[in-house]
């Protein structure tokens, strides 16, 4: 089967947040490169973040299009153009953007009724898609932007309440392929949210993840036994996409001209190999001024060079969230670069000068660091990131754990307690100092990168899985047609 048979019409529906949208758009491009007809359903502002890459794919002869649905801005009382969680800095705005995913149901259904696809692949956040697929009799697979490991860990936590009787950690979690410890008690609210999302996978033909089989070793089986659903590992999607292109381009979802070298990359060119710590807390986390200051003090005290990206401070004149004189001192010594705004993260992580990544452990950030062989210094911000930290520090041992001060469900709520400058300094030094003991972690990070690269080569696990996924979709459609005869 595969490339010779008639192309399938496949609709993909990404959720309105960069951590969801980037990997699902990558998946859309990958499936289109397998001679299928893919349509990405999205809203005007979200489309703008990736339309240039789609035009490039179209120019290369791939059948990929974007279908625009208007965002319900007026209904939600949101300013025009605010259509992605990246533009939100408070829970109310974020709640409205999440609500849009529900409000758009009638418009998306009406489009699907008029132009029925063969297969529907929505993000897990579109919980209504189960009923829609049933009503329209369209096979559905779900895209899950978090890791399968997280779902296993959440399930183990739920099944072992006795592990959490004490008021303070560490909490030892039994029942998983690896012994794991959580330093702080998870919020029951987060488990409920995740469970409701996993519920949304029900009735689907399986779940697609931005990961590779070797990274989830032991956990895929656990998940499949637990849910009875099949997992498709087609990641790291950013590497898979690179593999289908001849020349590496600037991060596919920034729409930046490949010839304009980003200021961060030009600055990294001036630094020694493996000498810089990249600091980023993803596209959503808005850390408190107190926490940002601790990071500033911690990185300065570590004496290591850094590239620090901060979101939510764009256009602000007042830098009172930085230690006094921080920028002058670190700039003067060419020791640090602070950027307020969007950066091409995948390319930064791939730059030879990067030696470590102080990260919030967003799933995409984690997979991107692994793809570049960059060891992590972990400091989770909210939600699934506390669990991703465990995969990094305790399962694969490719990072140093700084940890969090408390559990948070939201990227916007300031935590009452901050992670201290001393903890941050210690974490950075233990990875980056030549006598800090980070050698083994660095070696393991390189080995994991090798596995990721193998997975995306011809014959590798993710390439095979992508081919099998397309074959599977074809077989599902053929058997559905058979049923209708
Ligand atoms: N990202 C980027 N530049 C930025 C911030 C984020 O390219 O300045 C990308 C990053 O590479 C990743 C995604 O946005 O692909 C963020 O997803 P992740 O799961 O890491 O974290 P989230 O933002 O969802 O917390």
From TrEMBL:
Keyword entries, A-Z: Glycosyltransferase, Transferase
EC primary class: transferase
EC number: 2.4.1.-
One Pfam family matching this protein: UDPGT
Keyword Transferase listed: yes
UniProt keyword annotation of Glycosyltransferase present: yes
PROSITE patterns membership: UDPGT
GO MF entries: UDP-glucosyltransferase activity
UniProt family annotation: Belongs to the UDP-glycosyltransferase family.
Protein name (record): Glycosyltransferase
């Amino acid at each position: 089967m595969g490339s010779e048979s008639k192309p399938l019409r496949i609709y993909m529906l990404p959720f309105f947040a960069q951590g969801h949208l980037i990997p699902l758009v990558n998946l859309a491009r990958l499936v289109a490169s397998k001679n299928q007809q893919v349509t990405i359903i999205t809203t005007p502002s979200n489309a703008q973040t990736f339309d240039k890459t789609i035009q490039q794919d179209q120019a290369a002869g791939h059948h990929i299009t974007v279908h625009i649905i208007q965002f319900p801005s007026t209904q939600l009382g949101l300013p025009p153009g605010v259509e992605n969680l990246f533009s939100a800095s408070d829970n109310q705005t974020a709640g409205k953007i999440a609500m849009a995913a529900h409000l758009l149901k009638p418009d998306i259904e009406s489009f699907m009724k008029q132009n029925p696809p063969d297969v529907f692949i929505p993000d897990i956040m579109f919980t209504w898609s189960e009923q829609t697929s049933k009503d329209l009799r369209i096979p559905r697979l779900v895209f899950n932007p978090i890791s399968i490991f997280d779902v296993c860990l959440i399930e183990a936590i739920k099944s072992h309440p006795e592990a959490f009787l004490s008021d303070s950690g560490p909490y030892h979690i039994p029942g998983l392929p690896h012994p794991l410890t959580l330093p702080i008690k998870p919020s029951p609210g987060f488990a409920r949210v995740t469970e409701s999302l996993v519920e949304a996978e029900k009735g689907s033909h399986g779940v697609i993840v931005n990961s590779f089989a070797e990274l989830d070793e032991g956990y895929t089986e656990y998940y499949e036994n637990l849910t009875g659903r099949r997992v498709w590992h087609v990641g790291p999607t950013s590497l898979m996409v690179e593999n289908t292109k001849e020349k590496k381009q600037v991060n596919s979802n920034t729409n930046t001209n490949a010839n304009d070298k980003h200021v961060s990359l030009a600055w990294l060119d001036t630094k020694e190999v493996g000498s810089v710590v990249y600091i980023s807390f993803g596209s959503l986390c808005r850390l408190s001024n107190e926490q940002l200051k601790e990071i500033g003090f911690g990185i300065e005290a570590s004496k290591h060079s850094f590239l620090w990206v901060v979101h939510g401070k764009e256009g602000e004149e007042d830098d009172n969230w930085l230690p006094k004189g921080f920028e002058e001192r670190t700039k003067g010594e060419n020791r640090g670069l602070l950027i307020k705004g969007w950066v091409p993260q995948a390319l930064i992580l791939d730059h030879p000068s990067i030696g470590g990544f102080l990260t919030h452990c967003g799933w995409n950030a984690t997979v991107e660091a692994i793809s570049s062989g960059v060891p992590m210094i972990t400091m989770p911000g909210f939600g699934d990131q506390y669990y991703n930290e465990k995969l990094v520090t305790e399962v694969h041992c490719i990072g140093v754990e700084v940890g969090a001060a408390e559990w948070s469900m939201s990227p916007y709520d300031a935590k009452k307690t901050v992670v201290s400058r001393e903890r941050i300094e210690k974490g950075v030094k233990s990875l980056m100092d030549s006598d800090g003991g980070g050698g083994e972690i660095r070696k393991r990070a390189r080995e994991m990168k090798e596995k990721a690269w193998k997975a995306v080569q011809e014959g590798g696990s993710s390439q095979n899985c992508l081919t099998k996924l397309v074959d599977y979709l074809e077989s599902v459609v053929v058997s559905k047609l058979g049923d209708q005869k």
